Amino acid sequence: MYNQIIFKMFNKKTFAASLLAIPLMALAQSPADSVQVKKELDEVNVNALRASEKTPMTFTNITEEAIKEQNLGQDLPYLLSTTPSIVTTSDAGAGVGYTGFRVRGSDATRINVTINGIPLNDSESQGVWWVNMPDFASSIENIQIQRGVGSSTNGASAFGATINLKTDGLNRKAYAFTNNTIGSFNTLKNNVEFGTGLINGKFVVDGRLSKISSDGYIDRATSDLKSFYLSGGYYGADEVLKAIVFSGKERTYQAWNGVPLNYLEYDSLRTFNPYTYENEVDNYGQTHYQLHFSKQLDINTNYNVALHYTKGAGYYEQYKSGEAFADYDLMNVMIGDSTISETDLIRRKWLDNDFYGSVFSYNTSVNNMDITLGGAWNTYTGEHFGEIIWAQYASDGALGHVYYDNDATKVDRNAYAKFHYPYSNNIKLYADLQKRFIDYTFIGFDEEGNNVEQTTEFDFFNPKFGFHYQIADNKSAYASFAVANKEPNRNDFVESSPNSRPLHETLYDTELGYKLVGDNFKLGVNGYYMIYENQLVLTGQINDVGAYTRTNIDYSERKGIEIEASYQINEKLNWTGNATFSKNKIANFTEYVDNWDTWGQETMLHENTDISFSPDLIWASTFSYQLCDNMNTQFISKYVGDQYIDNTSSADRMLDAYLVHSGRFSWDIDSKLFSSAKLTFQVNNLLDEKYANNAWVYRFISDGWDPRESDPYVNANNEDGYDMAGYFPQAGRNCLLGITFGF
């Protein structure tokens, strides 16, 4: 089965070759215009979704230079870690492998991510796995992070932030680079980047080939990551045709279970990994194909149309002991007079998925009003199945016995209209109206408890309004109000029946901001108030089909103040920083706690509790000192306040606050052998802080049996019960050394 799917996946590479050949068909187009016009046309595909300086949204732009100066092989979340309101996580503890981040406390399933305007979030789970895109930062030209609902985008609605990535743009001159990193935990990165520059003023090809490996901080948490990026473009006088293909392949040893709380106190146990089976790995590959066409119709009008296709296939493999045959649709085994009902086995859980569609935008200006019309039509198909590849007792199953197999199809369509209207010389009004339609077909429980194919539909209206006020040349303010609606995820559907299926969530987001620019400083202050209606959270409740699924809660909110600032202290010394002060509350909810003595559940009412993983204070600071013309050093600090790991606000279930300092030294080397050479040395966690940045927990009651002796993950809590919890400790002091050569 694996060989068949991998063949299907890589057979699509012929599609990439076809896309890259398309620009050659445009030889008869009009002559080339200026490089600046070509670059502007190259950005049309992202501008429709981005906020501009006059858009009343809260956002941060990250330049290519800022990305490259810290790109030493760690995943993209770690390159964004010093931006406002962001908290990063790493399962392996060193920023390579399974990593993620939260924005304003919202996790990956609530953060919309697009690449060149095309959705990246998985259509069913709604998350993003950066491990599938190793070294993608090396092919990014710039990033915009919109916090809150943000501007209308393609894909799932943003409930915490929107991350808009633009891949490499036009390079007028030919280039070639190799970037190499070596670091702690046998971390190794090697890549090659190249570009032809403009050929005959019209054609360009860019590419990258990368490999990253690491043993990880956690025992056996190895990563073996490979990727490539290739684009070919035709740049005419008033049009751009660009084909892009990029791919990632990852094999990572599982460190998903975390470390027992008591082990965190001992250096020898902080790296504990309960998995010991040699192939307890996640093995997945994903290839993306994009074809973009942009056309400038006149000085005020342009449009962009893009086609895309993504192929993903892979599995995670697990050794499981004492598994019941009945759970795998197998018969018990008879040996003599004995009945064997359990077996040790090795299983693989597969996902084979396809995602394809089109996105478009049309930009014009009418009577001084800027208008953007756009939308997308995307389809996702996914096959989920599990197979047994070895068992201690064979039962009646064959090798590769498939014990579950279900398909899903999701169609996601949206259309939006955005208007910027100059009400006066210094006031600009903004309106953004979006309609989004979802059709999701899946295998799930019906009202009688039978697994049948069923379809659910959603029809959302997401309006946004605001204004930007230019107080003076160096002062401005803005205000906006936005509504976002979001459908439940795959597990919410397949692990419930129509009687217990959750409702969609709604977010009402109000943003107020002020910006001030001085001769040697910048200051931005933003206040936000996010009200959630029917937010989905885990309460411990078991539904009518026996699953722990998320439950709608009536009212919850996030409110806070974000501050961004920079100050040029003198010619050589510069400081940038940001801070977020917030309160994140659930008005009330009922928690359900399993009682192992009665096999029932106990209920507890909680009021005015903190939302999980939502610290009240986050801040970051960077001091940059220019030692000389070609040497720079930076001192970087990141603070994250206390975080509760569930919604009960119990000190028993909390991540302690941490403050981590890092240092970076870079040296642009004068060389006669290379067109450029740069050495970068980075020390992470300079003061060897012992901290964890993520965790999971399961709470239960057991008066008749104390499970702590048999399970190190269990601890007694102060509520006459137990917590089974895993924590994700991060590496102490560690180093990365990178060197780049240009040709």
In words, what does this structure look like?
There is one protein chain. The chain has 743 residues and is mostly beta strands. The protein has a single domain, classed as TonB-dependent receptor, beta-barrel domain (Maltoporin, Chain A, Beta Barrel). The chain is 6% helix and 58% strand. It has a 22-stranded antiparallel β-barrel. Strands 1-6-7-4-5 form a 5-stranded mixed β-sheet. The two termini are 44 Å apart. 44% of the residues are buried. The N terminus is likely disordered.
Observed structural traits:
743 residues, mainly beta, Maltoporin, Chain A, five-stranded mixed beta sheet, 7 helices, 6% helix, globular
How are the SSEs ordered, and which strands pair?
Blueprint: H1 2-11, H2 13-21, H3 35-42, H4 44-47, E1 58-62, H5 64-68, H6 76-79, E2 86-90, E3 99-103, E4 111-115, E5 118-119, E6 140-147, E7 161-167, E8 175-183, E9 187-195, E10 203-214, E11 223-235, E12 239-253, E13 281-298, E14 301-324, E15 333-335, E16 338-340, E17 342-366, E18 369-391, E19 401-422, E20 427-445, E21 451-472, E22 475-486, H7 490-494, E23 505-517, E24 521-542, E25 548-568, E26 573-595, E27 600-610, E28 617-628, E29 631-640, E30 643-644, E31 654-655, E32 658-668, E33 676-684, E34 692-701, E35 714-716, E36 722-729, E37 734-742
Parallel strand pairs: 4-7, 26-34
Antiparallel strand pairs: 1-6, 2-3, 4-5, 6-7, 8-9, 8-37, 9-10, 10-11, 11-12, 12-13, 13-14, 14-17, 15-16, 17-18, 18-19, 19-20, 20-21, 21-22, 22-23, 23-24, 24-25, 25-26, 26-27, 26-28, 28-29, 29-32, 30-31, 32-33, 33-37, 34-36, 35-36
